[in-house]
Design a protein that fits this description.
single chain; 102 residues; mainly alpha; two-stranded antiparallel ribbon; 8% strand; elongated
Length: 102
Amino acid sequence: MGDLPNFFRKPRGEGWALVGDAGYHKDPIMAQGIPDAFRSAEWVADAVHAGFSGARPLGEAMAEYERVRDEHFAPMYDLTGGMRGLEPPPPENARPISGASS
């Protein structure tokens, strides 16, 4: 697939929000794109509802969406970034399986 860019974009602004690959993209090796898009869309919908219903200020709710999105997706983003080259693990991470014959 070649080199695909990995990024986090600011996912919100006055009158707009980004979800899915528009706001955050990582290498597709782990096949998490669609679930991530659904999850972030749910978080945006919750934030917009909180803002429009008056439960909290819209800007505050959207800032919370950004914080939750970044915090939730960062570990998998980092993991997939490390897997991009499909290199074998370093020797110190490889160990024989207990009871396996050579």
